[in-house]
Give the backbone structure.
Amino acid sequence: MEKRKIWLILLAISAIITLLGLGFSAYNFYVFDNPFLNSTTKGLLSAFFFTLIIISLGLSKTKR
């Protein structure tokens, strides 16, 4: 398996985990009337954007 494919798989896994977390935050917002942008949601989004930066740097260094 080449490095580019591994980076893309990591990107897909990271996006899926982030979407699941945002789905749970939206569920808590609508069902339990909790604030949507709490510390957990902010941490999840910051971790996702940090992962995007790391993966984009890794993809930029691989050959196409």
About this structure: The longest helix spans residues 3-32.
